[in-house]
Amino acid sequence: MGVEEIQKINNLAKELLKHHIASSSEDAYARAELMVKGEPQKENNDSEVNKELRMLGLKMNSLYSELVSLQHEVKGMKDEIAYIKNKLQSEAFQRPSAPIQQAAQHHEEPGEHAETQKVQDAPKKTEGRSRTGDYSEKDVEIEKFFYYGTNKK
After folding, report:
1. What integer pLDDT is reported at residue 82 of this predicted model?
2. Rounded CA gap, 14 and 17, in Å?
3. Which of 62, 110, 144, 147 has its CA 20 to 30 A from that of 95?
4. Residue 29 and residue 16: Cα distance in Å, rounded?
5. From CA 65, how far away is CA 51, in angstroms rounded?
6. What is the torsional sign of CA 115, 119, 121, 122?
7. In a 10 Å sphere around its CB, with 0-12 CB exposed, 13-18 middle and 19+ buried, how is residue 139 labelled?
């Protein structure tokens, strides 16, 4: 490529940028070179495209292998969940018989702990229920709050 040809391409690229035909200087240079020479530079573009395609292929392969490994993990987790569900269901069927067996093993006389059970079953007194709002009209007498007698000053 001669000096005159390079000058023509540069001047044409400047004009393309000036008239907003090209968006960048690289685009303007490529268009100007296409106009002057009549053919684009395919060698550089093809090699860059091939490199990008190879890189995309490698990335796709790595994504595919990662997807396959994730599928195996998900399958393993599903199997584990199914195993746990089956185990819980089998334990649920065995539980109702377990309290009956424990009651038979711990058979005691009803008289031994009758006193402690009566104490535990008795309703507990609640003292100091002020400011909780769980009292009735019978708990509070209105006469205690209002005095209807004579006012002594």
Report:
1. 95
2. 5
3. 110
4. 9
5. 21
6. positive
7. exposed
Low-confidence ranges of the chain (pLDDT < 70): 1, 39-44, 95-133, 135, 143-144, 147-148, 153
> Given this model, what pLDDT does residue 99 score?
54
Which DSSP string do the residues of 98-145 spell out, in sequence order? HHHHHHHHT---TTTTHHHHHHHHSPPP----TTSS---TTTS-GGGT
Check residue 20 and give its pLDDT.
85
Residue 34 exposed, middle or buried by CB count within 10 Å (0-12, 13-18, 19+): middle
Q: What angle do CA 87, 89, 94 make, to 5 degrees?
A: 95
Cα gap 99→76, rounded to integer Å: 35
